[in-house]
Specification:
CATH architecture: Orthogonal Bundle
Shape: globular
Protein name: Cytochrome P450
Family: Belongs to the cytochrome P450 family.
Structural class: alpha+beta
Low-confidence stretches: 1-22
Order of helices and strands: HHHHEEHHHHHHHHHHHEEEEHEEHEEHH
Mean pLDDT: 91
Distance between the termini: 85 Å
Largest sheet: 4 strands, mixed
Strand order of the largest sheet: 1-2-6-3
CATH topology: Cytochrome p450
Number of domains: 1
Transmembrane segments: 6-22
Strand content: 5-15%
Pathway: Secondary metabolite biosynthesis
Number of helices: 19
GO molecular function: heme binding; iron ion binding; monooxygenase activity; oxidoreductase activity, acting on paired donors, with incorporation or reduction of molecular oxygen
Oligomer: single chain
Bound molecules: protoporphyrin IX containing FE
CATH superfamily: Cytochrome P450
C-alpha cells in the first residue's frame, strides 16, 4: 500500500535522483575529456610532478612546452590544472572568476573542525564566500589606487630613515631594507613604530609564517589525507598534530589581535597615530550595536594579513633590485642620470616626480619580471565544474598560474633571462605593447590587493637609494668585480639568499646631504 504521507517526498526523491543521474550521463561534460597532461603512474598518477620539491615552476614550464598553455596533473583524486599563458589565465581566472576564485582545501591549516590552525581567518587563505568578501572589501577600501596616497608620507618618511641606516652601516643593507618594509606596513596599518630588534609584533608574524611553512604543504600531516583522524581522542598516540595546530592557532590569533588591541588602547588614551586600523574603528557601528562585533572581527583579521602577505614578497623584490644594481652598473648610471636631470643632484625624488622617471619605472617592471617573486602565484580552486575549449574542468580542481613561465616566455620577451629595463620603453615612454609584468601579483578576484602599496614602496626605495648611493659588486680574489648570488629552489616566495655588495654615497656632496636628513621632518 502506498504511504500517502510520504508519497510526495518519495516521488520528489526519485525524480531528483533521476535528474542527477541523467544530468551526469547526458551532460556534455561527462562526454568531454579532461585537459591533456603527462601520463602518470597507475594509482599514484602524477604525484611525482605535483610533489616536485625542486623548482616546480621549471618542471611545469617544461611540461607546458609539450602540452601547451593548459595541462592537467592528476593524483589520488586531486586535479591540478596548470596555466602557462596570460591568455588562458585571463580567460579563466579573470573572465570566469566566479568559478575560479576558491582556494584549495587544506584541512590542517583551514579545515572545518576544532583542531585546526584557523589560518583561513587570514582572507588570503579563506574560501571564496561572504567572509572572504567582507574582509577583502575592508582591506581594499584603504589600499586601493585612489586612496593609497594617504600612506605616501609614511612610505617616504621611512625611506629617509632607510637612507640614513644605509649610510651608517651599509653592510647591513639586508636588515635595513627588511626593517624599512616592515616599518611601512606596521605604521600604515596600525600607527606603530616597530622596534629595530626583537619587536613582539614581528616575532608573532614570523612565527605565524613558520606555521604556514611547516603545515601548509598538504600531506605533511596525515589528517590532511584522512580527515576522519580528527575524531581520534587527544590522548591517543599519534595525535601530536593537534598540539601543533593549537600552538599555531594561538600564535596566529595573537598576531592579529595584539597590534589591534594596541590601537584600541591608544585611541582610548587619545594618542593613536592615524592608521588604517584607527580609520576602520572610527567608521564602525556604535559599540554594543548588533553589527559591531562582526565589523571588528573583519577589520582586525583583514589587517592581520598585511605583514604575512606583504613583508617577504616586497623584500624579495627590493633585495633583487639591490643585487641587479650591483650586477649592472650601466643600468644604475642611466637611472642616476635620469634622477639628476628630473629631480636635481642631491635631491630626494618624490611621488610627484614619478611620472617623469620613466627609466626608474622600467627598472621596477624589469625587476619584477626578471625575478617573478611568487613563481606559481597562490593556488586558486574551482568552486563548480567548468567547460573550456572542449575540456571539462571538475569542481575542486586546484588551478595554478605558472607566472615564471609567462614572464620568461621568449615570444613575449627577447632574451628573457637577461635584465634589460630598456625593453619596457619606446619613444621615451613605457611601451604599452610590452606584456605587463604585473602578472606577478596574480589574477582575477584574488589578485594581490596590496600591490599598490608594494609598488609605491618599491618605487620610493629604488629612486631614493639610487639618488644617493652607488651600489657595486665586491672584488673577487683576482680583483675583478663579482656578485655571487643564488636563489632558493623551493618555497612560495623566492628571495635572494644572502649576498655581498658595496653601497657607498655617490659623492662627498651626497654624503653631506645624507647627514643633514631628518626623518621626522619628512613625514
Ligand atoms: C612585490 C610584492 C608582492 C607580490 C609579488 C605579491 C604577490 C601576490 C600574489 C601572487 C598573490 C596571489 C594572487 C592570486 O591568488 O591570484 C597575492 C595575494 C595577496 N597579497 Fe600580495 N604581493 C605583494 C605584496 C603585498 C603586500 C605589500 C600586501 C599587503 C600590504 C599584500 C597582500 C596580499 C593579500 C591580502 C593577498 C590575498 C588576496 C586574496 O586571497 O584575496 N601583498 N600577492
Amino acid at each position: 500500500m502506498i504511504d500517502l504521507l510520504h508519497y510526495p517526498v518519495t516521488v520528489t526523491g526519485v525524480l531528483l535522483f533521476a535528474h542527477f543521474v541523467l544530468r551526469r550521463f547526458l551532460s556534455r561534460s561527462s562526454r568531454l575529456p579532461l585537459p591533456p597532461g603527462p601520463k602518470g603512474y597507475p594509482i599514484i598518477g602524477n604525484i611525482l610532478e605535483i610533489g616536485q620539491q625542486e623548482q616546480p615552476w621549471v618542471v611545469y614550464s617544461d611540461i607546458a612546452k609539450e602540452y601547451g598553455d593548459m595541462f592537467m596533473l592528476k593524483s589520488l583524486g586531486t586535479n591540478v590544472l596548470v596555466l602557462s599563458s596570460h591568455k588562458v589565465a585571463n580567460e579563466l581566472l579573470e573572465q570566469r572568476s566566479t568559478i575560479y576564485s576558491g582556494r584549495p582545501y587544506l584541512p590542517m591549516l583551514c579545515g572545518q573542525f576544532y583542531h585546526r590552525m584557523k589560518y583561513d581567518e587570514y582572507f588570503a587563505n579563506a574560501q571564496y564566500g561572504p567572509v572572504w568578501r567582507r574582509r577583502r572589501r575592508a582591506f581594499h577600501q584603504h589600499l586601493n589606487p585612489t586612496v593609497v596616497h594617504h600612506h605616501h608620507h609614511i612610505i617616504f618618511g621611512e625611506a629617509v630613515q632607510l637612507l640614513q641606516d644605509l649610510a651608517i652601516s651599509p653592510d647591513r643593507f639586508r636588515r635595513h631594507v627588511q626593517h624599512y618594509i616592515n616599518r611601512v606596513i606596521f605604521r600604515s596599518f596600525y600607527g606603530v613604530k616597530i622596534a629595530e630588534q626583537d619587536d613582539p609584533y614581528i616575532t608573532l608574524g614570523m612565527k605565524t609564517m613558520e606555521g604556514f611553512i611547516e603545515c601548509g604543504v598538504p600531506g605533511t600531516f596525515l589528517v590532511d589525507m584522512i580527515p576522519a583522524l580528527k575524531y581520534v581522542p587527544d590522548w591517543f598516540p599519534g595525535t601530536g598534530w593537534k598540539r601543533v595546530a593549537e600552538y599555531y592557532r594561538q600564535i596566529a590569533a595573537d598576531a592579529r589581535q595584539e597590534p589591534w588591541n594596541n590601537v584600541v588602547e591608544k585611541m582610548k588614551e587619545g594618542v593613536a597615530e592615524p592608521s588604517i586600523a584607527s580609520a576602520m574603528i572610527e567608521s564602525m557601528s556604535p559599540v554594543g550595536s548588533p553589527a559591531r562585533e562582526q565589523e571588528e572581527d573583519d577589520a582586525r583579521d583583514a589587517l592581520g594579513v598585511g605583514y604575512v602577505a606583504g613583508s617577504d614578497t616586497t623584500l624579495a623584490a627590493a633585495l633583487t633590485f639591490v643585487l641587479l644594481m650591483a650586477k649592472h652598473p650601466e643600468v644604475q648610471k642611466k637611472a642616476q642620470d635620469e634622477l639628476d636631470s628630473v629631480v636635481g643632484i642631491g635631491q630626494l625624488p618624490s611621488f610627484e616626480d614619478k611620472p617623469k622617471l620613466i627609466y626608474i619605472e622600467a627598472i621596477l617592471r624589469e625587476t619584477m619580471r626578471w625575478l617573478r617573486m611568487v613563481p606559481l602565484g597562490l593556488p586558486h580552486a574551482t568552486t563548480e565544474e567548468d567547460i573550456y575549449n572542449g575540456y571539462v574542468i571538475p569542481e575542486g580542481t586546484i588551478v595554478v598560474a605558472n607566472i615564471y613561465h609567462m614572464l620568461n616566455d621568449p615570444a613575449a620577451y627577447d632574451n628573457p633571462s637577461e635584465f634589460i629595463p630598456e625593453r619596457h620603453i619606446k619613444d621615451g615612454k613605457i611601451d604599452k605593447d610590452v606584456l605587463d609584468p604585473y602578472a606577478v601579483f596574480g589574477f582575477g578576484r584574488r589578485i594581490c590587493p596590496g600591490r599598490h602599496m608594494a609598488l609605491d614602496t618599491l618605487y620610493t626605495l629604488i629612486s631614493s637609494t639610487l639618488s644617493m648611493f652607488d651600489v657595486s659588486a665586491p672584488k673577487d680574489e683576482d680583483g675583478n668585480p663579482s656578485v655571487k648570488y643564488s636563489y632558493p629552489t623551493r618555497g612560495a616566495v623566492i628571495s635572494p639568499n644572502p649576498f655581498d655588495c658595496v653601497i657607498r654615497p655617490r659623492s662627498a656632496r651626497h654624503d653631506e646631504f645624507l647627514r643633514t636628513l631628518d626623518p621626522s621632518t619628512k613625514d
